[in-house]
Amino acid sequence: MSKLLLKNGIIFDPFNNIAGEIKDILIEEGKIVEKFSNEKDVKEIDVKGKTVIPSAIDIHSHIASQQLSWIRLLGINNAKFKQGWKGLTSESIAKSYISNGFTFILEANVFPSLVKHTIFNLKQIPVLDKAILLNLSNYWPLELEFQRGMEEEATIFLSDLLEMTKAFGFKVYNPFEAENWNFQKLRENLSEKGRLYNFNPIDIYEKFIKYNEKLKLPHSIHAHIEGYENTEGKKNLNLLIEKIQSLDLSSILANTSKFERKQILHLAHASSYNIDGDNNNIINLLNNNDKFDLDLGFCGFNEINPLITDDRRLINSLQNNANPYKLFRSAVEFEGDTFATFRTFDKKNKIHCNIWANALDLALNIKNIWQMQFSINFPNYAMVEDIPEILTWLISKEARDDFMKDLNQESLKNHNLKNSNKELNFNDIVILSRSSPAKSLGIGFYKGNLGIGADGDLNILNINVNEINLSKEYKKLASSLRNIEFVIKEGEIIKKGDNFNLKNNGKLFWSKGRTKIEKKASVLNKKEEFFQKYYSIFYDTMKYELPTNFLREIK
Question: Which pLDDT value is given to residue 1?
C-alpha cells in the first residue's frame, strides 16, 4: 500500500521527545510524512486507546552464519531443539522476530571469506532488514598495517573490503588469539604478545577504533572481550577499559546529529564479563564516559540453548564440565576458529544466575539509558519469545523478584540486584529496544524513529500504557508484547493478529565509510599479491554482486 494513516494513537517516540501523546502518523511510499501528496487510496487504521512505538532492532544476534547451519545439523534429532526453537529455520526466525515487533537484525560476527554463505542465509530470512559485521581480529592480511602503524593503507583496504562484502562494520573479537591457539596454548591476557607478531592483542582495539573513526562508519567497533563467562573476561575487560581511557580518542560523529552515535566502542553482551556479580567497573565507566555503550545480554533459562562462539576459553570450560552435546569446530585460514554446540542454562548455577542478574543490574544502574541496548545474544542466551517476560523484569520489581525465587540464592545474596527497588518506565523500554540500538548503529534517522522522513516501521500494541500501573500490572504489558496487534514495515502491514505477510525480502544495510582514493590502486594491488602468494583464495573472490534492490548503503 502507498498511503497509511494511523489515527489517534498513543505515541512513544523518544528521538523526538514524545512520550504518550495522542497523535496521527502518516506513511507514504514507505516513509513517515507530515502530509500526504494527495488524499487518494489512503488506508486508515483507528488506533485510539492503543500504543504506537517504533519497531524493535536487534543490535547483536547470530542468525545467518555458517555456525547456525551447524546448529541445525546438530539439532536435527534433538526433540527439545526442534520443538522449542522450531529448528531455527529462516522462516521461524523471521516470524519470531516479527511477532515481537522487530524489523531490523544485525548478524554480529562473520569472517570475510564466509560472507557469501552468510548473505545467502540472510536472503532466506524474509521481510526483515539486516546487516553484518566483519570479524577481522585475526586477519593476517592486516598484520603489516598493525605492525607498522600504516593507518591510511589500512583504512583504504578496509573500505574496499566492506564494499566487496557489503558489510556494515567491524567486530573485534579475541585479537590474534588464533596464533596462540596454533601453539596449543591460551594466553594469560590481552597484554601478552604472540610469538609471530610484534604487538599486543589489546593494541588491535585501539587500531580498529582509529580506523573506524577515520572511515566515519555509522557504527563504532563492536567489541567482544576474550574470556567471557570466565574470570579472565573481567581481567581483560579491565585492561581494555584502562587502555581506551588512556587514549585521547572520540567519535568523529558525536556532535553531528541526535541520530548519530557518540561511542567509539560498543561492548557486546555486557552481562557476561563479571561472573562474580560485581559490575561496578562497567557502571562507573559508562556513568562517567559517553565514549562507550553496550548491549545487555539478557538470559532466559531455556531448556536448551544453541551456542555460536569463537571464544576458546568458553568452549574449554564447557568441555571441562562435561557438556553432553556434540561440538562443531572449524579453522578458517587467516581468519580464526569457530565453534557451535548446545548447552543448558541452569537456575542453580552461580555463573548463570550472575549473568542473568548482571544484565538487570547494568540496565537499572547506568544513568544514561541511551548508552545501553536491549539484547539476548540470540540464540546464545535466550529465545526471542522470552523478550516480553524479560522486559517485565525491568519495569517491575515484583516481576523480577518472582522470577528470582527459583534462582541460586547463595549466588545472588550479595548481588546489587537482590535489594534493588529500581524500575524503568515504558519510555525507557522503547529507548532500550528501539531508539538506542538505532542511534548506536548510526541508523537513527531511518529506524527507531517516528519523525518525518523515517522509515514507516512501527508496532501497534493493544494496550493503553498511560492508564495502567505497569509495575503492578506487568502481565498486561507482557501479554500485549506477546500478541502485538500490528507490525508495520515501510508502511506495509507484515503482521496483523496471527497473520503474516512474508512476501518481501527486506534490505541489506552496508557501508564502506569515507576514505581518500589517491593510494587505493597501489594498496589494493599489494593486497591482491598477498592473497595470491599466501592464501588459498584470490582477493576478488570475496566480491559479491547483489541486486541493487536488495542493498541499502548508509553513508
Answer: 55
Q: Determine, yes or no, domain membership for 331.
A: yes
* Structural domain includes residue 222: yes
Q: 3-state DSSP call for residue 507? A: coil
Q: Is residue 155 part of a domain?
A: yes
Residue of 297, 304, 282 whose CA lies nearest to 373: 297
CA 312 → CA 73, 128, 205, 275, distances in Å? 21, 32, 19, 17
Pairing between strand 102-110 and 129-135? parallel
Low-confidence ranges of the chain (pLDDT < 50): none
Domain tally for the chain? 1
Residue 147, number of CB atoms within 10 A of its CB: 11
Rounded-to-integer distance, Cα 344 and Cα 465, Å: 35
Q: Which residues contact 265 (CB under 8 A, 6 or more apart)?
A: 205, 209, 220, 221, 223, 244, 291, 292, 293
Kindly report whether the peptide bond that precedes residue 379 is cis, defined as omega within 30 degrees of 0: yes
Domain hosting residue 260, numbered range? 56-441
Give how far Cα 538 sits from Cα of 143, 323, 337, 528, Å: 18, 39, 20, 7
Check which CATH number belongs to the domain holding 159 and give it.
3.20.20.140
Rounded CA-CA distance 506/504 in Å is 6
Tell whether 488 is covered by a domain: no
